[in-house]
Amino acid sequence: MVDVKLPAALASECAGQRHLHVDLPDDATLADVLDAIATTHPRLARRLRDESGKLRRYVNIYIGDDENRRLQGLATPVEGRDIQILPSIAGG
């Protein structure tokens, strides 16, 4: 099982849930986590990935303490690690 933490800005896309528990096999990757989320929370999934399945530029996902782009991207193994999803915030 993988625990996924969401900020309030994204929790609104999945009935206010700030924590999602995703059951996956031990060899699951970040892409598998996002695919599982897409089946239960399609609105959230559309905010995270584009039509081609790539992570949107403004979405940052941390696996443990490491940002996924510094690891193996969507192919990063997630076994036993917490995941935190954070959208970028811009101001002006």
Automatic annotation (TrEMBL):
It comes from the Bacteria. Signal peptide: none annotated. Pfam families: ThiS (PF02597). This is Molybdopterin converting factor, small subunit. It comes from Glycomyces harbinensis.
